Amino acid sequence: MKKNIVFYLKCISLLLLFIGCKKEIKNQSLKNNAQIKPPKGMVWVAGKTFLKGAKATDTYAMPREKPSHMVTVDGFFIDATEITNTQFKAFVDATNYITIAERKIDWNVMKNQVPEGTPKPHDSILQPGSLIFNKKVNAVVSMDNYMQWWTWKIGANWKHPSGPTSTIEGKDNFPVVHIALEDALAYCKWANRRLPTEAEWEAAALGNNKNTIYTWGNDESILNANANTWQGVFPVKNESKDGFEFISPVKSYPPNSIGIYDMLGNVWELTSDLFHVNYYKELNTSSPILNPKGAKKSYSPSNPYQVEYVMKGGSFLCHASYCASFRISAKMGVAVDSGSDHMGFRTVASLEMISKN
Ligand SMILES: [Ca+2]
Ligand SMILES: [Ca+2]
Asked: Are residues 96 and 12 in the same domain?
């Protein structure tokens, strides 16, 4: 009788172990095959291992995109489009959030972000505002000085993208701009989302393609049909051959292979990774890196005074002659409190975040 009880208990424990294993397998498969319906406006990106960074045939690739290396990301949901004015307005209406571009400037904070000894600008300059592209630039002296084509515009913010007299009326489905990292994070918190890591962003941009330079493949000659960038002579003559001189409504160009729009061009997109020019060079790339979250600290030789984050995809201002950032591996750093009229964001959600709801 005692033997039978022991045998019975062993059977039960084996059964429980079997059920436990099945649950584990199910959780694992959930990570890589979404079994939850995507939230409205989002697309599932299946978990995968892929080559992050510069592709071998990419002649535009910059040193900060090298060496390319294998990474593995778990599956996640991503917004099919850049966050629009309508979406951002819903957040502001619900929370009364004030973006950084709308806030008073504190010189005591700002002076730590500029070279020591920089004189305090006149109070008339230290007003809420943001950077806008200078449409009136006729000629540039040196391409190294990008301030030739950027203007500090008092009163420019997401509601007034080109300055105080401009509006977003009739631009509901345009990407929201003048968004700094803190603003994007506040939106994410409200919406139960987060910013993508750079690895997730590249995984989403690749879609079903493998190892391609662009979201549609490797053919640069069809750039104008697939992304809002700059044609002509940057930054003085925009021929708008792709149909748009400035930002375009989201979904104006074809989606990538898994239904995501405007990953390349239109507005730059923030990520949660810190920007460090030598990050890739210092990685141990002997095996795929699992869910990389970027550099531990930020470093940009052109802006050593501020913390910068990685932004991806380029914008309507990107041209082959300058940064050619309309590529999946391209990246730039953006100061943590800085926005402009060609910067926006899109969000992601992991399965755990969605399942909690
Ligand atoms: Ca364009
Ligand atoms: Ca974009």
From this structure: no
- In tens, the pLDDT along 116-173 reads 778 888 887 789 999 888 777 766 666 666 667 788 899 999 999 999 999 999 999 9
Enumerate residues with CB within 5 Å of ligand 2 (an ion). Answer: 262, 266, 313
Distance 169 CA to ligand 1 centre (A): 21
159 and 12 belong to one structural domain: no
Indicate whether this model's pTM tops 0.85.
Answer: yes
Given a contact cutoff of 8 angstroms between Cβ atoms, the answer to whether 308 and 274 are in contact is yes
Number of separate domains in the chain: 2
Return the exposure string of 29-47: e unless at least 16 CB atoms fall within 10 Å of the residue's CB, then b.
ebeeebeeeebeebbbbbb
**Which tens digits make up the pLDDT trace of 4-51?**
544 444 444 444 444 443 444 344 444 555 567 899 999 999 999 999
The H or E element that residue 94 is part of is: helix 85-95
Closest ligand, as measured to the CA of 228: 1
Do 294 and 257 reside in the same domain of the chain?
A: yes
**Range scoring the smallest mean pLDDT among 102-116, 130-144, 236-250:** 130-144
Rounded to the nearest angstrom, the distance between the alpha carbon of 28 and the centre of ligand 1 is: 42
Cβ within 8 Å of residue 13, ≥6 positions away: none
| 13 & 109 share domain | no
pLDDT in tens, 255-270: 999 999 999 999 999 9
User: Which bound ligand lies closest to the C-alpha atom of 266?
Assistant: 2
Structure tokens at 228: 């809002």
Task: Note whether 29 and 130 are same-domain residues.
Answer: no
Interval between CA 311 and ligand 2 midpoint (Å): 10
Residue 75 structural domain? 41-356
Same domain (yes/no): 99, 163: yes
